[in-house]
C-alpha cells in the first residue's frame, strides 16, 4: 500500500510541477534560524510567559499567543485586561520572524518593536513600560539574568523587548510534511494535498501566500474582487497611514500551521478552513470553488503544519518583598 | 569557606536536633510518587493546559495554578470567567496530592473530585461538564488519546478528572535543600535556616505544619489565640458543614515552595512571608516574634523550595470543524 501510494505520488508530482526543480517552487521550506543568542532567548522565554508584565498579573504574552495551541488564542478576537474585548484576531507568533512587518496593519517593523505594544496597551496587558521595568528590577532572579545576558544590571524596555524578540525568532516550525515534499520526499504528502497545492497556484492564492512563511510578505486588500462585509470596525493599514485607499489593507497572514490558528481573518469571522478558503476564493479571486477543490486546498493547507516549538515550561524567578503588586481589579 | 560552613553546620545541627535520627523529625522528605500511569498523566497534562475546558476558551487549570510560578497565580484572589473576582486565594497545585482533602474548606476528598469543580464553577471556568465532554469528543486527537489510555472512545467527566488528577500526582517537588538536610546532607542548609527550623518547632508552628507536605493534614481555625479580622467573606469549613463552630476553620496550607506561592492565607491578605509569619505567630500562637526570629523562620521556609515540575510544554490537539465554539463574551 505504501509503495503504491509512493509511485502514484511520483507520477502525479511530475505532472503537477512539470519537472520543475524544488528550488523553483514559490513556497520555500522553513530554515531554522542560525544565529540565536541562546542566553538572551532563554531570558526572553521567561518574559514571554511572565504574567507580571501585565497590570493584572494574570496575562502574559503566552495568554494570547499560546504556544500550546499554535501561537494564537483560537478566539475570534482576544481578551485583554479586565476582560476587554480586543479589536482584532491575535496573529500567531509562530514564524512571525519571517513576516516583513508585525501586526495586521504593519505598524511595527520588527519583532522588538512589536513586543512593547501589548504590554502597554490599555486594552491588552495594560501596564506601562516604566512599571514593567520597575517590576523586573525588583526581582533578583531577573537582575542576575539580565546582567548575564547584557553585561550589566540595567533592565529597561529596550532590553526586555530585545530578549522577547530573540525568543520569538526561535519560534519557527520546520519539517512540515509539505516542506519535506519540497525537499524531495515524494511520499510526504498525499495526492489530495498535491492537487490542492496545484489549485493553490493555479487559482492565484500563491500570488499573496508565497515564500518561506506562505504569506506575511505584503499588504493586500481584504475584498479585492467582491466587497468584504465586515462586522468589525478594524480598517487595517488606514489606521497607520491615514489614507482612504489603505482601508481594509491588511498584512497577508502567513499560512504556516493554519490548521492550528483558527478562527481566520483579521476579525476571526471564518470559523473553519473550509469557510476561509471559500471566502478567499470569492472575495480575492472571484472564484466559487467546488467542494472538491475546496477540500483539496484545505488538505494542502493542513500539510503546512510543522514541528511546534518544544521546550521545557520555563520557571520564573519569584517576586521579592519590594515587587510592586499586581492590580487585577483596577480599571 | 565551604568547609568552615560545613563544620559549623554539623555542630549547630547536633545542638538543634539533640542527636535525633532524621526519621524522627516531624517534617519528612518528599518521596516522588511510585505508581503513575504515564499515558494517563500525559493526557491529564494536556487537559490541565487546555483553555477549551472553559466557556471563554481562555482559562485553563494552568491559568490559576500556573506551573511556571509555583502552581498558583500569585494573586490575592483569582480571576474567573468574565474577569469575576474569586472568593479565595488559589492554593498551589504543587504537592496537593499530599493533602488529606482538597480546597481550603476541604469540600473535595480527592484530586479527582476537586478537578471537576472549577471547570463547572460559574465564577471560574464557567463551562458545564456536559459541554466539556462534547468539546473533547469533537477533537480527534483527544478521542485517540482517551482510547489509548482508557481502552475505548468514551470521554466523560469521570475520565477527564481522573486524567487531570493523575497528572497532578506528578506535581511533587522533592530535593528541596531542607529535604537534603533531612536526608543527611549537613551542608544543604545554613545556620540561619536551621535556627529558623528550631524556632518553627519550639514555637509550635510544627503542630499544624508537619509531615511530608509541611501542612495539608488537618483543619485549623484561622485566629486561634487572637481573632482574625477578615475582609473576605470566606468562612471556611462552615460552608461545608453548616456548623457555626467551623467558621474560619481552613485546611492548613502546605508550606512546600511557600517562597513561590505569595500572597498568603485563604484571602491572600499577607503579601510577604515576613508578614505571614508575624500574623501566624500572633494569631495562632500568641507570640510576637522578634525581627531576628521572624527572619530565621522565613529563611527556613525558603529552604522548602524543591525541584519544580520539569516537562515539555504540552501541544494540544486542534479542534475540528464540529467543536463547539468558545463564548468568551457571554455572561
UniProtKB/TrEMBL annotation, chains A, B:
For this UniProt record, give its keywords in alphabetical order, as a comma-separated list: Electron transport, Heme, Iron, Metal-binding, Oxidoreductase, Periplasm, Peroxidase, Signal, Transport
**Designated name of the protein:** Cytochrome c peroxidase
Q: What class of enzyme is it?
A: oxidoreductase
Q: Which organism is it from?
A: Candidatus Electronema aureum
Q: Where does heme c 1 bind?
A: 61, 64-65, 81
Binding locations of heme c 2: 205, 208-209, 280
Cite the Pfam families for this sequence.
CCP_MauG, Cytochrom_C
Which PANTHER family does this chain map to? CYTOCHROME C PEROXIDASE-RELATED
Q: Which parts of the sequence are annotated with region: Disordered?
A: 311-331
Q: Which cofactor does it need?
A: heme
Report the subcellular localization: Periplasm
* Residue ranges of every copy of the Cytochrome c domain listed in the record: 39-147, 191-305
> Per the UniProt record, which EC number(s) apply here?
1.11.1.5
Q: Which GO terms describe its cellular component?
A: periplasmic space
Q: Where is the signal peptide?
A: 1-23
Q: Which domain of life is it from?
A: Bacteria
**How many and how are cofactors bound here?**
Binds 2 heme groups.
Q: How is it modified after translation?
A: Binds 2 heme groups per subunit.
**InterPro entries noted in UniProt:** Cyt_c-like_dom, Cyt_c-like_dom_sf, Cytochrome_c_Peroxidase/MauG, Di-haem_cyt_c_peroxidsae, MauG/Cytc_peroxidase
* GO molecular function list: cytochrome-c peroxidase activity; electron transfer activity; heme binding; metal ion binding
Amino acid at each position: 500500500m505504501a509503495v503504491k501510494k509512493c509511485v502514484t505520488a511520483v507520477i502525479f508530482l511530475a505532472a503537477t510541477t512539470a519537472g520543475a526543480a524544488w528550488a523553483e517552487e514559490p513556497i520555500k521550506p522553513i530554515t531554522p534560524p542560525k544565529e540565536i543568542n541562546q542566553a538572551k532567548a532563554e531570558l526572553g522565554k521567561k518574559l514571554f510567559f511572565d504574567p507580571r508584565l501585565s497590570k493584572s498579573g494574570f496575562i502574559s504574552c503566552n495568554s494570547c499567543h499560546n504556544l500550546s495551541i499554535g501561537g494564537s488564542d483560537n478566539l475570534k478576537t482576544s481578551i485583554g485586561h479586565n476582560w476587554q474585548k480586543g479589536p482584532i484576531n491575535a496573529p500567531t507568533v509562530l514564524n512571525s520572524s519571517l513576516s516583513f512587518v508585525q501586526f495586521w496593519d504593519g505598524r511595527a517593523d520588527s519583532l522588538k518593536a512589536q513586543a512593547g505594544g501589548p504590554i502597554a496597551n490599555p486594552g491588552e496587558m495594560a501596564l506601562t513600560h516604566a512599571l514593567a521595568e520597575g517590576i523586573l528590577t525588583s526581582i533578583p532572579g531577573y537582575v542576575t539574568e539580565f546582567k548575564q545576558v547584557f553585561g550589566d544590571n540595567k533592565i529597561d524596555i529596550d532590553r526586555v523587548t530585545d530578549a522577547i524578540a530573540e525568543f520569538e525568532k526561535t519560534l519557527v516550525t520546520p519539517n512540515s510534511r509539505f516542506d519535506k515534499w519540497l525537499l524531495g520526499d515524494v511520499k510526504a504528502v498525499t495526492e489530495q494535498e498535491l492537487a490542492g497545492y496545484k489549485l493553490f497556484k493555479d487559482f492565484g492564492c500563491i500570488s499573496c501566500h508565497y515564500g518561506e512563511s506562505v504569506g506575511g510578505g505584503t499588504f493586500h486588500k481584504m475584498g479585492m474582487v467582491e466587497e468584504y462585509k465586515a462586522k468589525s470596525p478594524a480598517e487595517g493599514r488606514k489606521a497607520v497611514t491615514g489614507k482612504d485607499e489603505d482601508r481594509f489593507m491588511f498584512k497577508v497572514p502567513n499560512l504556516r500551521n493554519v490548521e492550528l490558528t483558527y478562527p481566520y481573518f483579521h476579525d476571526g469571522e471564518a470559523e473553519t478552513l473550509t469557510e476561509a478558503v471559500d471566502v478567499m476564493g470569492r472575495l480575492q479571486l472571484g472564484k466559487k470553488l467546488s467542494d472538491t477543490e475546496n477540500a483539496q486546498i484545505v488538505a494542502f493547507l493542513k500539510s503546512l503544519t510543522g514541528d511546534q516549538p518544544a521546550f521545557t515550561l520555563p520557571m520564573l524567578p519569584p517576586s521579592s518583598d519590594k515587587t510592586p503588586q499586581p492590580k487585577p481589579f483596577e480599571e
